[in-house]
Design brief:
It is globular, with a radius of gyration of 18 Å. It is mainly β and 309 residues long. Strand 7 (87-96) and strand 8 (104-113) form a beta hairpin. Helices cover 2% and strands 52% of the residues. The relative contact order is 0.13. The strands form 4 sheets. Strands 9, 10, 11, 12, 13, 14, 15, 16 and 17 form a 9-stranded mixed β-sheet that branches. The chain has 1 helix and 21 strands.
Amino acid sequence: MKLIFDRTEKYQPDPFIFEDEGKFYIYVTNNGEPNGVEAYSADSLLGPYRYEGAVTAFKDATDYWAPAVIKIDGVYYMYVSCVKGDKFEHMHVAKAESPLGPFTDEKMLYDRFSIDAHMVKTEAGLFLFYAENNTDCANGRIGTRVFVDRFLDPYTPANEPRELITPDFDEEIFTPSYREDNPWHTVEGPFYFREGEYQYLMYSGGCFQDETYHVGYAVAKSDEEDLTKVNFVKHTNGDRFAPVLIKNEYEEGTGHHSVIKHEGKYYAIYHARDYMYRENGLIEARDARICRLHVADGIITAERYKDKI
């Protein structure tokens, strides 16, 4: 189901939902004007969401991808990739006194392509899940994959990243026509949460332009608090491709999501587009949608409807 937004002419790619003091905030990718991460706010989970404009104030930056926010000791930290000079989509962190910013004092975290952050705090400290490239792969499927790195404080990575989720399927190829001799794969958009005895790491796979773009997950039955030590196993169906979200009869390009637990129930906030947009050539038309997730005993399933939860 589509979420309700007051700016219907805008799209909401890579939506990250954040709840704070009874209000809901959604942050989205922005490659245009106004320059900066765009945000929306609402008094209820389903909206309507009010457009709040750009909430970042970075210097000499453009093309903000996949923002994520965490509140630590009363301070709001945003992790987001952006372009600065010849630094194409390098991960940055910035802070603010409000969930609507302005997020300032930005710092580049990694001097390489690094995207799709999700910062998590456990009893063992801070851990950043994100995606970067790897061309030295044992299974021969080169491309982008999910990593985790421990942080010494919100601004300081330990710089000891561990690879967690790798591509295994043709459905994770970043468009079939790209580098056909040695296809590039993409596993990105990580989102971590814990329920009961299990830890879950969800992700997106493939290319957002393709019908095979999807959300999958990996799982570990573990009480380990140091998330760099958790061994996640990708969910499959007998070693076969088994996504949680993928195209259905009314939407495609289902991917890059975040998860919220509200009133005891799990929901995925993800982007997708109606098939009409492909027919009109507007494959960038990704708007935020919501569906119920059922999480139990290491298994995640999605309950999706076109016009209801």
